[in-house]
Amino acid sequence: MHFFLLFSHFFLDKVRKLIIMNLGKQTLLYGGTMAKKKKATRKKATKKKATKKKATRKKVAKKKKATKKKATKKKATKKKATKKKATKKKATKKKATKKKATKKKKTKTKRKPNPAFMKPLTPSSQLAEVVGSKAIPRTEVVKKVWAYIRKHGLQDSKNRRNINADAKLKAVFGGKKTVSMFEMTKHISKHLK
Question: CA torsion 112→114→118→121, rounded to 10°?
Answer without folding.
Answer: 180
